[in-house]
From TrEMBL:
GO terms for molecular function: metal ion binding; superoxide dismutase activity. It comes from the Bacteria. Residues 95-176 form the Manganese/iron superoxide dismutase N-terminal domain. Belongs to the iron/manganese superoxide dismutase family. This is superoxide dismutase. It comes from Bacillus mesophilum. The keyword Metal-binding applies. The keyword Metal-binding applies. PANTHER family: SUPEROXIDE DISMUTASE 2, SUPEROXIDE DISMUTASE [MN], MITOCHONDRIAL. InterPro entries: Fe/Mn_Superoxide_Dismutase, Mn/Fe_SOD, Mn/Fe_SOD_BS, Mn/Fe_SOD_C, Mn/Fe_SOD_N, Mn/Fe_SOD_N_sf, SOD_C_sf. Its EC number is 1.15.1.1.
Length: 297
């Protein structure tokens, strides 16, 4: 095979791979990239005779232009964090693991004791990871056997332990030994825009946490649809959950999060908790989440 033939074959293959990639990304058929790749395929299909130097140069130029367009597309998509989604590492059913605590167990003292952090992270969070893995495996079994007689039970377990695992994973990073104070930058502006002021936001968040019915969470979320922040309460982990939102800041007000140290003074725990809030982490989550936009209704 001549060098030129090899080159043409390679370009053909690349063109085909790019189309498959756009397909996997659900890129609209009318998108300019699709049109360019399609018209290039047509050019390549018409080439069944030897090419002169001018024609070869023309193809080179077109290939280079297309490669640049695709690279720009990759760059834009990777800034959203989910490029090559089919090749990204993912958690298969039943394979969740307990994330390590991002700081020492005693480093949130005096606000949250080492004893609480050890129990909360090593025992309680671990039990949600185990429960989620169990639910996923049982549902996998149900799919294999085509037996969904226990679907209600395992779906409930999936929501309970899944929300427990994901919220705790957010919660650990939402806190830091060097936390406290106020957020800065665009998150602060967004808080002031929607809640009036940081103090008004803090008051509403604290009240939502203190008045959770039974056990649960207070959660600051960004709504990609209404495009504003909101504060929600969540009973247990998932009851009252507002789907379609992204948790940014989560405060655990289950007894296991504070009782050993604060006893029945949940309100004191909530007030003291603000001293360990990692606003940098909340802002990172907000910036990432706010990239996501759906049609507003
Ligand atoms: Fe908890």
């Amino acid at each position: 095979m001549s060098k030129m033939n090899e080159y043409v074959q390679d370009v053909f293959k690349w063109n085909d791979e790019m189309k498959k990639f756009l397909e996997s990304e659900n890129v609209d058929r009318n998108n300019e990239l699709w049109q360019k790749l399609d018209s290039f395929t047509e050019v390549m299909n018409r080439m069944n005779q030897p090419l002169n130097a001018q024609e070869i140069n023309g193809i080179h130029e077109q290939v280079e232009g297309l490669q640049e367009d695709m690279e720009n597309y990759f760059r834009e998509r990777s800034s959203l964090g989910n490029i090559f989604s089919t090749q990204e590492p993912f958690i298969s059913a039943g394979k969740h693991v307990l994330p390590p605590l991002p700081y020492a167990y005693n480093s949130l003292e005096p606000y949250i004791s080492e004893e609480i952090m050890r129990l909360h992270h090593d025992k309680h969070h671990q039990s949600y990871v185990d429960g989620l893995n169990k639910a996923e495996k049982e549902l996998e079994k149900a799919r294999t056997k085509n037996d969904f007689s226990l679907i209600k039970h395992w779906s409930r377990e999936l929501a309970f332990h899944g929300s427990g695992h994901y919220l705790h994973t957010i919660f650990w990073n939402n806190m830091s030994p060097s936390g406290g104070g106020k957020p800065a930058g665009s998150l602060l502006k967004e808080i002031e825009k929607y809640f009036g002021s940081f103090d008004q936001f803090k008051k509403q968040f604290s009240e939502a946490a203190k008045q959770v019915e039974g056990v649960g969470w207070a959660i600051l979320v960004w709504s990609p649809r209404s495009r504003h922040l909101e504060i929600l309460q969540s009973e247990r982990h998932m009851i009252l959950t507002q789907w379609d939102t992204i948790p940014l800041l989560a405060l655990d007000v289950w007894e296991h999060a504070y009782y050993l140290q604060y006893k029945n003074k949940k309100a004191d725990y909530v007030d003291q908790w603000w001293n360990v809030v990692n606003w940098k982490d909340v802002e990172d989550r907000y910036l990432k989440a706010s990239e996501l936009k759906w049609k507003p209704y």
